[in-house]
Amino acid sequence: MRKISIIIDTDPGIDDAIALAAACFSEALEVKLISTVSGNVGIENVTQNALKLVEFYGKEIPVAKGSGKPLIKAIETASNIHGENGMGGYTFKEPTRKILDKHSIEAMKDVILTSKEKITLVTIGPLTNIALLLETYPEVKNNIERIVFMGGSTERGNYSPAAEFNIATDPEAAKIVFNSKVDLVMLGLNVTSKALLDVETVEKLRVSNKIGEMFYSMFSHYRGASLEEGGIHMHDLSTIAYLNKPEIFKTTRAFVDVETKGEYTSGFTVVDLDNVYGKEPNATVCLDVDVLMFRKWLIDLFENMNI
């Protein structure tokens, strides 16, 4: 089976960490590069977290540090959810590997332009780096297959009543990406909030291997819902599930853009499901997920990890 070549742009983050594990051990994916962006916590912490995770997973994947702040807005993080360093609940060894000596948009450009096959960008943080990449090096668009991103919502937000965190923390960057004419796949909060890991799933992960044990330790410090309240949100993991098992998602094509100027609606994703504006669809929008199949896919992946 031919693997999908991907670059992951991420802000680890507990749910980012499990998404990275799933990507690194998926038989369907080949991770060419990990790019970091300020989001869940600041850029220094997310970059160190990415290095620690790659080393913990035993993978030789280059890591490049990206943007430490949004294009225009003041920096905001979600350390109240993920802990001060983003990896609450588990102590990693200090990594021996180093980041690449270039900004992540330079590293992404190099990977994309030298790849023999088109690259899929998987973005699980704010879209700052991706906007900078597309604006600085528009020639990369010709060798990008699509951008699969966790962000936005067809319903309410978690940053504000209107807006989801990844989009709202850098709405100007999101607008650039939505208008880039690169094919998009949107896994919004309306779907990722359903992708909960229940008690049974978490217990199976815990006994599967050392990575499952690590996540079990993290979950007790993660404030993205709880097992007692019905399950743990794994928003970012949905992007990797989509690439592995697209059939478990219900989707539609729609025009998507982002509001950048509203006093109460900045960061709101306008998803024109009914084609009110008559504009050409620019995204595959996920509407629902088979949660039982999502959990089964993850359990199978962890039980078959070669680690």
UniProtKB/TrEMBL annotation:
Claim: ATP-binding is one of the keywords in the record: no
One GO term (biological process): purine nucleoside catabolic process
Cleavable signal peptide: none
All residue ranges annotated as the Inosine/uridine-preferring nucleoside hydrolase domain in the record: 6-295
Keyword entries, A-Z: Glycosidase, Hydrolase
Matches recorded under Pfam families: IU_nuc_hydro
GO MF annotations in UniProt: purine nucleosidase activity; uridine nucleosidase activity
UniProt-listed SUPFAM superfamilies: Nucleoside hydrolase (SSF53590)
One CC-aspect GO term: cytosol
PANTHER family linked to this entry: INOSINE-URIDINE PREFERRING NUCLEOSIDE HYDROLASE, NON-SPECIFIC RIBONUCLEOSIDE HYDROLASE RIHC
Protein name: Non-specific riboncleoside hydrolase
Organism: Clostridium cavendishii DSM 21758
